[in-house]
Amino acid sequence: MKILTIALQKDGQLTASSYELIEAAKSLGGEIHTLILAENATDLAQDLASHGGGKVIAVSNPSLKFVNDDIYCKVIKEVVSKYAPDLILGSASFYGKSLFGRLASLLDAPMASDITNLEIDGDSIIATRPSCGGSVIAKISGKDGKPFCATVRMKIYAESKDGAGEVIEETIDASLFESKMTVKEMKVESAGALNLTEADIIVAAGRGMKAAENLPLVSDLADSLGGAVGASRAIVDAGWISYSHQVGQTGKTVNPKLYIAVGISGAIQHLVGMQTSKNIVAINKDKDAPIFNIANYGIVGDALEILPALTKKFKAEL
After folding, report:
1. Do 265 and 166 share a domain, yes or no?
2. Which of the 8 DSSP states describes residue 40?
3. Per-residue pLDDT tens for 47-96?
């Protein structure tokens, strides 16, 4: 089996999910190829090779500085035509999902999004993904003669730390870098803010915080842990915090090592976005809140009193 993973970079730095994809490929065995597209891809390719990326294909061009779905897909299609992978893996991140939807269409290939497991059954590749709000676990396989495209939920696989690899500098026809769409710059909402989908620790707030002016208590706890701030749809709709923080069915799906739900009741719409977190801590005044049904640890009490105490303790310990 030939597996091609699509590594992504931001500001010339590889994303953590790029290493996770290599680990996912390793779990299946077979021949691993990794593709990195960047303005200057050589050093990034060397890094991927040292992390077990197998044959790392480096494509460099100024138009690849930012993710441009049009150009990226044309280049990836060219690489796929040459190396003929059976499975193409990408990250289920904002950029990965956008890219792979277009790529699968361009390749006329089957696709599974936001998968949580991969396995081999005879000659078939089987991908597992939650469906219907997590109440159904679907098994999806590809079809003969077409590469199987899949985006992998972040934090499901560990980051590949080492392994053998070699760099292949690939030359692509210049016409493929032409596009009617030009990406001039990339901006983040606030400098230094952690991306929710990439964070190992998330402290998420709900209506139990009572008012927008109390949200700094959540930010303080997240900062003390080196984590990101999440939110329920209720407080986003109320205008307390921006949509970029929303976790749930109509927000982001996250899978951190630690998820602290503060004043969140646990409606199914929120749970589907965070229930695969490795450890869940719930803080709520209502001992019968549904969030406690999936929590590993629960604290019953007033979040406005508990958060400052936790923050003080963590700052003292760390």
Report:
1. no
2. S
3. 999 999 999 999 999 999 999 999 999 999 999 999 999 999 999 988 99
pLDDT attached to residue 192: 45
Tell whether 10 and 151 lie within a shared domain.
Answer: yes
Across the chain, where does the E strand assignment appear? 2-7, 9-10, 13-14, 31-38, 51-60, 87-91, 111-115, 117-121, 124-131, 136-141, 148-152, 163-169, 201-205, 228-231, 258-262, 279-284, 297-300
Final residue of a structural domain among 177, 211, 228: 177
The rounded distance, in Å, linking the Cα atoms of 300 and 289 is 10
Rg of the Cα atoms in the chain: 21
What average pLDDT is seen over the chain?
Answer: 92
Distance CA 42, CA 56 (A): 10
pTM reported for the whole predicted model: 0.81
What confidence score (pLDDT) does residue 193 get?
A: 59
Residue 225 tokens, joined: 């842990």
* Average pLDDT for 245-267: 92
Q: What are phi and psi for residue 285, nearest 5 degrees?
A: -75, -25
Q: Residue 311 falls within a domain, yes or no?
A: yes
Phi first, then psi, for residue 280 (nearest 5°) are -120, 125
310 within some domain: yes
Instruction: State the pLDDT at residue 86.
Output: 95
Domain co-membership, 27 together with 152: yes
What does each C-alpha distance from 180 to 67, 69, 99, 257 come to in angstroms?
A: 14, 11, 16, 41
Task: Write the pLDDT tens digit of every residue in 120-153.
Answer: 888 889 999 887 766 788 999 877 778 999 999 8
Check which CATH number belongs to the domain holding 226 and give it: 3.40.50.1220
